[in-house]
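Quick one, T. Sequence first:
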Amino acid sequence: MAKPLSADRLVEVLRAEGVTVVEHRGWRTHNRNARGAWGPVHGVMIHHTVTRGTPNTVELCYNGHADLPGPLCHGVIAKDGTVYLVGNGRANHAGLGDPDVLRAVIGEKASLPPDRRASVDGNARFYGFECVNLGDGEDPWPAEQLAAAERVAAAICRVHGWTQRSVIGHLEWRPGKADPRGFAMEELRGRTGDRLGRRPDGPADDAGPSDEPAHEPFPGADFFRAGRRSPVITEMGRRLVAVGCGRYRVGPGPDWTDVDRASYAAWQRRLGYSGRAADGIPGRASWDRLKVPAS
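Structure tokens:
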């Protein structure tokens, strides 16, 4: 529970965390406060937009539409990692959600209960950030965009003294919602928690050169599907064997199989993931920690 940040303070903490911020016209006084409460706030909610393109998405989230007036969030996270602030105050992003989930967020529980009911006003209680993505499971999530979501979540949690357990997805709040789709929220919470363990460090690419061996960049969750054949999968399998998570009788090889998925699920469980977050489909945080050699 906390008092919402002022516009000046929100910009300050986002930029301190290394977020590239663009202040959209009139965002500082653009809100739905006349229609309901804004605060106390308890967490950060992440969405996907089901749109393509930054300019039109920013305008949509600022203006809203006939059935749902804007702002539709507080900030839009573009694919290049830029965050466009479009509202300050109550925004039409969360809708009604499950009171048990709210209690778990307030208590920063290790896991969230299923969202079965929609009876609590989330627009009053959560900062909302929309990520530009079609949400079809095919549209990619660039590294810059995911890094920005992590930084946004960490910035707000840091200033309020929250842990990563105060970060949730719309799909975890309101029954019937599927956003964000394309990465696991537990993965984003893990990355946020790692960041909160460090001081704000500015832009993600300011670390300078490294002598560490090259590792395979995360190819995206949609890369790992039936019919995929790649040396990246072979190298992944070898690393899974090396860390004691391989479930192979023969191999590993270049074709994505159920055995690869079972092996990767063992790695996810080793890292502490469970449930849908340990489904055997690689996510960025777990992939980066596996350190697959570049093929």
